[in-house]
Amino acid sequence: MQTKLILSVISTFWFIVVSQAQEISKGNVFIKNAHVITITNGLLEHTDVLVENGIISKIGSGLKEPKGVPVIDASGQFLMPGIIDAHSHLALEVINEASSPITAEVKMEDVIDPFDVGIYRALAGGTTVSHAMHGSANAIGGQNITLKHRYGTRDPDQLIMKEAPRTIKFALGENPIRVHGRGKNLQPRSRMGVEAVIRNGFEEALQYKADWEDWNASDKGKEKQQIPPVYNSRLETLVDILEGEIIIHCHSYRADEIYMLIKVCQEYGIDKIVFSHVNEGFKVAPELAKYTMGASVFADWWAYKFEVYYSTAYNAAILTKNGVVTSINSDSDELIRHLYHEAAKTQRYGGLTDDEALALITINPAKQLGIDKLVGSIEEGKQADLVLFDMHPLSIYAIPQMTWVDGVKYFDREKDASDQRIKVNPEETLEPIFLHTEHHNCMRDVDFYFTGFGRNLFGHSH
Amino acid sequence: MRANNLLSSISFIYLCFLFPALLFGQSDRNGDRRITGTYYISNTTLIPSPGKILTGQQLLFENGIIKALGKNIDIPAEAQEIKGDSLLVYPGFIDVANKTGMVEPTIPEKPDDFDPSEPLPEIAGIHPHFSAVDHYQEKNPHDQEWRKLGFTIAQKLPKGKGMLPGNSALVIYGHESRNNILSDNQSLYFKFSTVGGVYPNTDLGVMAKWRDLLQNARLYETHGEMYSEQSSLRRRESNPVLDALIPVINREIPVLIESSSELDIRRALKMQEENNFDLIITGINEGDALLPILKEKKTSAVLTLDLPDDKFSDPTEGEKGPDFEKRMERTKNAYLKSLSLAGEYEKAGIPFGFTTKHLSRTDFIKNIRLMIANGLSEEGALAALTVNPAEILQISAIAGTLSEGKMANMVLMSDTLFSEEAKVVMVISDGYLFDYSEKAQKIKDGASVWEYEAETEGRKSKGKWKFTKEDNNWSGTVSYDDPQTEGVKTSPIKNAVITEKSLAFTFSVEVGENALEVKVSGEVTGEKFSGNMEIKGYGNYQVKAKKLEKPEIK
Amino acid sequence: MMKKIIFSLLFIICLFKADLFAQIDGEVVKPYKADFLLQNARVVTVTQGILEDTDLLIKDGKIAAIGQNLAPQNYTLVDCSGKSVYPGFIDSGTSLGLVEVNSLPETQDFMELGKLTPQMQALTAVNPNAVAIPVTRVSGVTTVLTQPRGGYFPGTAALIQLNGYTPDQMDAGFRAVIMNFPSAAKSGDYDSRSEETIQKEAQKKRDEIDEIWKKAANYLSIKEKGGQLNYYPEMEQLSRVLKKELPLFIEVNAAKDIIAALEWVKEKNLEVVLTGVAEGWKVAEKLAASKIPVITGPVLTLPTRASDKYDVAYTNAAALHKAGVKLALRTQDTENVRNLPFHAGFAAAYGLGVEAALKSITINAAEIFKVDDRLGSLEVGKNATLFIADGDPFEPKTQVEQVFINGYRIPMTNRHIRLYQEFLDREMKPAE
After folding, report:
1. For residue B470, what pLDDT is reported?
2. B412-444: b or e for each residue (b if 16 or more CB lie within 10 Å)?
3. Average pLDDT, integer, range B485-493
4. Residue C406 in this model has a pLDDT that exceeds 80
5. B457 touches chain C (CB under 8 A)
6. What is the pLDDT of residue A19?
7. Rounded CA gap, B129 and B188, in Å?
8. Using the beta-carbon criterion (under 8 Å), do B319 and C194 form an inter-chain contact?
9. Which of A415, B71, C386, C431 is the most buried (most CB within 10 A)?
10. Backbone angles phi, psi at C159, to 5 degrees
11. Contact B500/C at CB under 8 A
């Protein structure tokens, strides 16, 4: 008896130690009597949702209250899946490795900043998953990382959504042209060059793959008549793209460049591609619908640079109605706090239905990130990333009340206190002030290449 | 294997030592030679290793090696006596990872058709084959100053802007007449930093580049092995960068990764996990949450002695209100936490060393005392200066404690180390004596020493003003950071006018061939000075100073 | 009754369908002026409550009558059953008309060289054909303050209405001299200056401004004495501020800067409005006590500090309002001034309340700009600058169906809508 007790104590202790070191915390919660916006199965009135060990285990009305599980009375409130942002630069120490037109080898997972208070702010806006992307300085940028907003951890790895497939950033148009062609006298200097750089990259990757196949196929041991090829993680990554292991998320604006990349991808047999921003996507909506994993757009951003001058706020509506898997992204630490409102704008600009509008920030971005089997809707068996609103989330007056990731509550408006910073600078007695004009964006960390020309200090520069 | 290498190289150096200064028929015309290299410290208190105190001891050393220690040891007739009564003898301190005395390596010029996406490795700050030994100025004044504080051995890091500036060396702060290099290629120095404007330009590129380099070093080695067995293959072109990485992948030398934040430490651990090399993390300034991981991985840890500025003892007028108070409370706690970091490491049972990199010499003892006041034990502090770094640098066989057969490196203190009263009386390094004992001197009437802090063009400079009065005239010296190198310089104080309520003087700073005239003036309230520093032709800067309670006498 | 139904059907088909979805090739759609009778509307007057089932007559560009069952006469009838009529919204701080494409310097006209350029006139550089203007006005935002930036005194802002072929036609009759109050705050992470340096630099700038101010006062006193003066347009413009012919809009955001600005203003007998005021919530009582009106915004922006509560930018307006500060809102935007109702909606949700939020983009703004005799509410005699919506205009779902500016019926189209019409279905369908 005594031994048994000791053993159980030890095993409990062991479990705690292990879970602290490795495991991602997962919670239980019983949310009672909510209007449940399932996304994939319409709106369920007066419905209960049971979460066990981070997973939605039961959805139904009049479910039995489980014992030992926190109960949330959500009467009159709206429960929806955690919002997913398919294009963000939140929680990153560095955004651009702008030194080469192709930097497929760099990984955003190396520079995750768990101390970014923006994660908490995103949670307070109901956003539970964000796609932390490389910037848009390079035709082929770095490998992105999909994050779950488990704010509070100091360990960058704990923010990673481990199940999410690999993705990579591409960028077309003005940004890579400006950084490399104008900034450094390297190709691309035009949209012709952007295509050439990408094609060159793919061709080099094919050659690289062949070299390695030769090396691996040649006889092992002393008789080997070949010398080992040079390892190159850049080309290695491009090979993985060509083999369909990585989803491309491509920063793009103009219809011609979008069309160009669709054609290039078709030629190389790539179908895992999502176009991001894609302000002129509406012009090539049928092609986007047919050949891609969709488009991730802004609700209404335009005119901050020439390539977005011929935009329309009806983009999401046109794309949706043309059968393109469409999402609305933030690309901003500010917008990520109210993507539900950005989605609502598609009701003004194009009259999308509630379901269509909310799919733009839930199941559709989940599809684009390859995680739609796990998150993006309220379904039994899915991960319990949830957000509770006091009103319908598409109303301007709706305020997120609570946000869960894996069934763990990370935000509760009732209990919200100021100063949610995890880490504090011991020398910072004078706190810096950030005014409206200083948001993060796609072109951070490229200043080095722009001392002296054309940089706009005021507006957006995505 | 590594330790053997090290020992053989050390024994080589010592062989040279046994035959000092061959004279070839010349007399010692200046009387520079030692009579003997044999000394003993008599009737003293030894602290041979942290936590051990032995009183009434003798310690004999000969030609730089400790020969014997104990109560009743045989003292040979040629041994010269060092009177050890009332002194405490500690092992010489060991500094991990500093750059004093190092000069920047020469980097090739960028070619006209320079492509920043594919720069030469040297231009990209990737020159692991550069050796600290080649860029070390042995007779630099800074290391002599550090020796005054008790340091006898240091690990020197090569300078350079990028991620792989080169390999480190171990040096002795010994006698100028000797070659004081203890060993080279002691570890590979890595930092999360870039040259800027070329690939790699950020930590993103640095991490990716590192992975590629290691992978290619392996392939390069394979290629070399294949070629040596089979000359019909394409020859292996020599690649000094990859050559320099082979000892890392074969775990013959560790990688010394410099960190400036908790996230850097985590990155370093991740790098190690990916590529399985021996790891030393230096510059640690935070990350108490990482203690269990560091302990589990037995990572060698080196903490920075450079603590954050204390902004709380003398708070500036700020905003008021509950938000402000709450935030200041958190900031202050963060400050206190950084003071207690060393203590936390000790409690967690992680042996760590210290680095003086970035540390101003005047802060050395002050900061250690702060750490002690915030939880670090005195034994722990001593260990971090002696046995732990010896272990980390794999020189425990020759340094770190006072014991027979080890190098004669020691610090003779007037009082318990770290106590307010303690002064370094003598440092013995490599068997050579450096006498820092104070000549009896009285505090002169009105003499005072001030510690000042000035801000010039966003940079802070610190130093001391020392005033003495003779025949009703004030004179003295001002010390400041040398604008050209890393050291401290002093200049004489001129035109000093000191009253109860004001203080003014001028001094000049030599910068190359030019001399800057500096005028300091301001008000004195009690022990505090607040005023202005005018650098002619440059502008006005604010200066604050505090009068030290007891003037130091040197 | 039947007639009414037919009328309303006609209206829907002609007015909306025609304009929104079926532009004939070569047809020029432009604003036109006529007498319109808006019938059976829910009239949200702002100043006199909400009037249900009420008619509103637009005649000669003015609101000629508000009442029930107004005689139709020969007016163009607009059935507003189930619809609401609102006064045109006013954005109290934008760059609209001064910028076409934000990243192209060739299209930026909001900043002149120099720190003392108060005489630079924003109205001069307003491009009446800026593509963003029709994009903005179909949202019900009819009137905006457009303003220069940069320097201590970047220039003179102008209130414009978003219809007209010349700047004069767009002039809504208000000017203000802009001043940027030098900040003693640490600005962003990359500001490595020490507290003392920051304070000193700000003080130096404030001293410079004081010098300029003294100079302007000197200029004015010589001028008033009839002394001979050289052409000095900078001082001339500032002397108008001193004489209270022009108000001074002081841009200030950090809490301690706001307090310093209040101090600065105290000694001077000026007409002042504080703008920005991002940290106003920290000093709301002091602001209220000063009785100085505040233009704050954007609402949809990040907190100024890492340690702030996540929603302080949303709640700032409410905090100021509750303290008793007279408040107007701005977007500080160019191409997305159309989001003004959403900024107001967020402020409303986060404590300001719908009524106060509505006032902050209508009558309060009009009062601050001293155009409340013409704009800011639906009252007889005021300009017919208003819009019809099918619901609460703060709600994204709501459609703004018709906008009138000074009695001009505004075509409910713009480039965004035309692109929608063209590309919703790329294949042309034969007409049914």
Report:
1. 75
2. bbbeebbeeeeebbbbbbbbbebebeeeeeeee
3. 77
4. yes
5. no
6. 37
7. 9
8. no
9. C386
10. -90, 125
11. no
Question: ipTM of this model?
Answer: 0.93
Hey, are the CB atoms on A344 and C195 less than 8 Å from each other? Answer: no
CB contact under 8 A, B330 and A421: yes
pLDDT digits (tens, 9 = 90+) for A167-215: 999 999 999 999 999 888 899 999 999 999 999 999 999 999 999 999 9
Partner A, chain C 131-190, Cβ-Cβ below 8 Å: 131-132, 149, 183, 185-189
pLDDT at B543 over 50: yes
Cβ of residue B315 closer than 8 Å to a chain C Cβ = no
What's the one-letter identity of residue B371? M
Q: What percent of chain B shows pLDDT beyond 90?
A: 65
Interface of B with A in 460-519 (CB under 8 A): none
The confidence band for A456, taking pLDDT boundaries of 50, 70 and 90, is very low
pTM of the model as a whole = 0.89
Looking up residue A412, the CATH number of its domain turns out to be 2.30.40.10
Peptide bond into A188 cis (omega under 30): yes
Q: Can you tell me the distance from the alpha carbon of B439 to that of B418, in angstroms, rounded to the nearest whole number?
A: 22
* Strands (DSSP E) found in B104-244: 151-156, 166-167, 169-172, 181-183, 188-191
What would the two tokens of residue A129 be?
Answer: 């998953």
Structural domain boundaries, residue A197: 83-375+430-450
* Residue-range domains of chain C with CATH: 1-87+377-432 (2.30.40.10), 89-375 (3.20.20.140)
Containing domain of residue B534, as a range?
448-547
Angle of the B203-229 helix axis to the A233-242 helix axis, nearest 10: 100
Kindly report, residue by residue over B255-272, the tens digit of the pLDDT: 999 999 999 999 999 999
Look at C282 and B316 and tell me if their CB atoms are within 8 Å: no
Which residue in B has a C-alpha nearest to residue C200's C-alpha? Answer: B542
Judge whether A179 lies within some domain.
Answer: yes
Determine, yes or no, domain membership for A14: no
Question: Is the CB of B319 less than 8 angstroms away from the CB of C307?
Answer: no
Q: Which of B112, B115, B203, B204 to mutate to test the interface with A (most CBs of A within 10 A)?
A: B204
Distance from CA of C104 to the nearest CA of B (A): 25
What is the pLDDT averaged over residues B66-71?
96
Picking from B383, B128, B71, B109, the residue whose alpha carbon sits closest to that of residue B256 is B128
Which chain C residue has the Cα nearest residue A459? C102
- Chain C: list its partners (3+ Cβ pairs within 8 Å): A, B
Q: What per-residue confidence (pLDDT) applies to B549?
A: 67
- Say whether B327 and A105 touch across the interface (CB within 8 A): no
Asked if A386 has any chain B CB less than 8 Å from its own CB, the reply is no
**Of the listed ranges A221-225, A358-362, C294-298, the one predicted with least confidence:** A221-225
